[in-house]
Design brief:
single chain, two-stranded antiparallel ribbon, two-stranded antiparallel sheet, mainly alpha
């Protein structure tokens, strides 16, 4: 290693000559450590051990996975219907369980007597649907009328403003022309 004296603006400094120093990339220093850690992990975690861990984990979480695939969520400490169903609980294991469940659910539904709607229930449902359609149409008409009224008001205000500017301009021109004639 070589040191040099450096003098500038009346100050003398001792600096190290770095021309002959080999620069080391920090990643090159870390790579052997990472490689060793991976090798040690592989040595202690065989394929069989990993398979057993996965199976044990799946066995311990089978009820939770099943309930999530059925559309339930346990975010508040009790199982409830998941309003975001389809965004969670999907996995390779879940896909398999879901296929099995679909078959079981189809079999169950074929055995369950489906309720029939009597005339009173049909009328009630139809009345609710009609009321919702009328409410929706009324709301849409109100929105369209409001938008149209706003557009007309904006045009009217724009016309009035332009008219005032023109009137002011003409009055100014008359004043200027009147001053020139005198």
């Amino acid at each position: 290693m070589q040191f040099l004296l450096y003098q500038a603006e009346g100050v003398t400094k001792l600096i190290m000559n770095t021309d002959n120093i080999k620069r080391i990339n920090p990643i090159d220093a870390v790579l052997p450590i990472v490689a060793q850690a991976v090798a040690e992990w592989k040595a202690t975690n065989s394929e069989e051990k990993i398979k057993k861990k996965v199976k044990d984990l799946l066995d311990s979480k089978a009820e939770e996975v099943t309930l999530k695939l059925l559309g339930f969520n346990n975010s508040w400490g009790k199982w409830e219907l998941d309003h975001c169903n389809g965004r969670s609980g999907e996995s390779a294991a879940g896909d398999f369980i879901q296929q099995v469940q679909q078959t079981a659910i189809k079999e169950w539904l074929s055995e369950v007597a489906m309720p029939t709607l009597d005339e009173k229930m049909k009328k009630s449902i139809l009345k609710g649907v009609n009321a919702e359609v009328k409410r929706s149409i009324s709301y849409q008409i109100q929105q369209l009328a409001t938008n149209q009224a706003n557009a007309l008001m904006n045009k009217l205000l724009s016309d009035i403003c332009v008219s005032d500017h023109v009137d002011n301009y003409l009055r100014t021109m008359k004043l200027i022309e009147g001053d020139n004639e005198s």
